[in-house]
Task: inverse folding
């Protein structure tokens, strides 16, 4: 893996976010020259700030600003781009639907347009969501060729972004220096997430505030996975595109096995085994509609990228709970902890493939 990224120029949009900060750390560990593009630090606390990560360029720009995005891409001339910048929350998309579409759809188009002007070879992995699918609440996992859609603004924006990506790829990136891949992942958990309306960050905040956690859908099932799982998929996709044009423009699901689908209640019960101060109560009312059944079929990623999920449910929660326990215990070196979790994850991957 290191031979693909060492001394390579890697741009990560949304690098100050939860996924983006973990990917920035991972790329730095691989020896890449990392440049990050984000509009701001999205949360307080922030995994990115706690890492105190020194990257090549730490840029504050709105992905909606097409001129500045074009200037950055043309100046850095990246070898790889990982596009994670997004408005990522369903609840917030109801409050700010226009901003959600501007960021998730037009922002993606701005990046693709900037790449269209790039002369050097570049691999771009663009991250959308499992919510790109038109969720019919079917029991089987969604395949990459299933219908896209979305009833809420967030899901609709991600489905619309995929149409933009497909159009740009087929119109401009079939036989040239740019190769495009799309990653679709579901709910991810892990240390360093402090977004609102996400179950584990809300749980940690409740402990800090010495309150019970209020949950609205204890039986909602999600394909929970640790943040390093889809990130390893995005990296695998980038390497595959570097080696071959065969999967240019293809989308890939990166989710856990169906056996790892658990409810919100299951997550909290497992979390409490390590973080014993956690307590919760169930609230009857729901404030907005969110689909409750969504599974991904990941056979395509397994067959074409040799990727599959690695951590079982218990290990996923263990990685997460141990990170937050260190945070709650005021551990000052969370960067070392995060690096060690990446190294441990890689050992699990290698052992699984033996």
Result:
């Amino acid at each position: 893996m290191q031979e693909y990224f060492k001394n390579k120029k890697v741009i990560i949009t949304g690098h100050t976010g939860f996924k983006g900060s973990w990917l920035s750390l991972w790329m730095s560990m691989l020896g890449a020259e990392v440049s990050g593009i984000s509009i701001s630090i999205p949360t307080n606390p922030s995994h990115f700030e706690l890492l105190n990560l020194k990257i090549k360029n730490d840029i504050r720009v709105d992905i909606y600003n097409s001129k500045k995005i074009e200037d950055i891409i043309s100046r850095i001339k990246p070898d790889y781009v990982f596009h994670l910048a997004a408005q990522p929350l369903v609840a917030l998309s109801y409050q700010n639907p226009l901003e959600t579409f501007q960021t998730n759809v037009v922002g993606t188009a701005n990046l693709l347009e900037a790449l269209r002007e790039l002369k050097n070879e570049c691999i771009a992995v663009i991250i959308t969501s499992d919510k790109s699918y038109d969720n019919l609440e079917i029991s089987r996992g969604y395949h990459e060729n299933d219908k896209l859609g979305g009833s809420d603004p967030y899901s609709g924006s991600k489905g619309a972004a995929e149409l933009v990506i497909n159009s740009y790829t087929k119109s401009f990136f079939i036989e040239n220096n740019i190769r495009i891949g799309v990653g679709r992942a579901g709910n991810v958990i892990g240390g360093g997430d402090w977004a609102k309306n996400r179950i584990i960050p809300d749980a940690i905040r409740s402990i800090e505030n010495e309150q019970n956690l209020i949950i609205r859908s204890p039986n909602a099932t999600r394909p929970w996975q640790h943040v390093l799982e889809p990130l390893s998929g995005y990296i695998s996709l980038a390497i595959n595109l570097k080696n071959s044009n065969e999967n240019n423009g293809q989308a890939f699901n990166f989710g856990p096995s169906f056996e790892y689908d658990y409810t919100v209640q299951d997550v909290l019960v497992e979390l409490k085994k390590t973080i014993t101060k956690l307590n919760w109560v169930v609230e009857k009312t729901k404030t907005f509609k969110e689909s409750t059944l969504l599974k991904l079929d990941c056979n395509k990623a397994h067959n074409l990228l040799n990727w599959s999920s690695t951590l079982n449910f218990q290990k996923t929660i263990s990685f997460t709970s141990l990170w937050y326990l260190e945070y709650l215990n005021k551990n000052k070196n969370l960067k070392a902890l995060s690096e060690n979790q990446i190294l441990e994850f890689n050992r699990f991957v290698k052992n699984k493939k033996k």
